[in-house]
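ping. complex inputs:
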Amino acid sequence: MKGSLIILSFFVLGVLLGMFRFVPELLINNDYSQWALYLLMFLVGISIGADPNSLKAIRQLNFKILLVPIVTIVGTTLGVAAIYILLSDEKFLDLLAVGYGFGYYSLSSIFITELRGDELGVVALLANIMREIITLVAAPIFAVLFGKLAPIVSGGATSMDTTLPIVTKASGKDYAMISIFHGIVLSVLVPFLVTLVLSWG
Amino acid sequence: MFTVLIVMVVGVFFGYFLRNRKKLVKFADKFTMWAIYLLLFLLGIAVGANEIIMKNLPRLGLKALIISLGGIAGSVLLAWAAYVIWFKPKNNNHEG
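pong. complex structure:
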């Protein structure tokens, strides 16, 4: 929990600094987050490769692992349908498209901006950033209350990278491979599902 | 996105060959948290510096929060059922 609060304060600090332009223009005009992500993934790779348990997990993979991304897709669909009561002046399929970003905010917001305009694009960006942040903060609680898959499905597509360290902390390193597999499947599906849903609308 | 995965696979190989250098592996684990802090900090800057987002933040933010919570709640609840049915270790094989 302490770790998540530190994470959140770094985000808020970034928002404040960006708002007041209290950072070098260089940092605002260039997106260095891609490089930070590469660094993170390299470190996560080292931690997985150095852990004998993660290799064991690969050998134990079976059909059950396929169920996890399906749980996330069906669960997200049901969840968005439930909150549609609160936002019924919106188009359901627009909301569903935002939900189908599964935390992959960069790609989903670009797609949704292209297909539905800036406003829904911004909502997609925020909703999917929030999915990641909420997961980072709540993963340990989710694991205790709802079992070890909960942090993974909550993270959505980010379960393969940005939320992977939190997932392995909350659910254990033997869930790392499930988490990575889940994230890869959803990341690949995001552009397809978002486009499909918005083309129905 | 695939570059990200390739970078991670390279890391896995590094980690595998360095697995007996305990100090180095421990350092990598610690450094991971700092990489997350950096990532979220940069994300914050991108959001804060975007005037369109900041101006409409309360209204768009609330809408986004509701969608986000709905998606998470639906997934987590369904995952709870899936965990209990398919993943939870059975009591007779493990410590109760």
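The mean pLDDT of chain A is 87.
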